[in-house]
């Protein structure tokens, strides 16, 4: 079996576990029409990649059986349309309470993020705070690239925006991100490019103190 077939079979296993819930090796073997040994080989790869886990389940007759199920990491592989719900709720809030309430919502989110991350900035130099901010944004899916200029300033590029659909419609989300950066870093930050405005990335220029 070649590599493409292996990948395809593992995708089928993930889909089976998503639609049918926890399954045993025997269940999967019958469904796929391949040997239990072949199924176990695929399961080993999926376990290594932290996409599945197993639990020992007692049977009415016979020995306990390992049942395999998807992890939270695997669930993220399946399509999500959260931004549609978010946009619908923001539009309803805007219609009922006006633009000010929508902006207040973004401001409260910004304040919550600052409270969450400011401890990681405490007592650190600007260089360390900038690196910590890059790590935070990377962990949140922003695909950050950090550069230091000859003058000692920084350029922080974000090549992905996890809230792009929201930011495209509500620019206050971008304003709050800029404000959050300035608050966490304690220095002047300027945004020169923005994904929500059609640029290829979000670029922030961070001034040394």
Automatic annotation (TrEMBL):
<dbReference type="Pfam" id="PF08220">
    <property type="entry name" value="HTH_DeoR"/>
</dbReference>
<dbReference type="InterPro" id="IPR011991">
    <property type="entry name" value="ArsR-like_HTH"/>
</dbReference>
<feature type="domain" description="HTH deoR-type">
    <location>
        <begin position="6"/>
        <end position="65"/>
    </location>
</feature>
<keyword id="KW-0804">Transcription</keyword>
<dbReference type="InterPro" id="IPR001034">
    <property type="entry name" value="DeoR_HTH"/>
</dbReference>
<protein>
    <recommendedName>
        <fullName>HTH deoR-type domain-containing protein</fullName>
    </recommendedName>
</protein>
<keyword id="KW-0238">DNA-binding</keyword>
<keyword id="KW-0805">Transcription regulation</keyword>
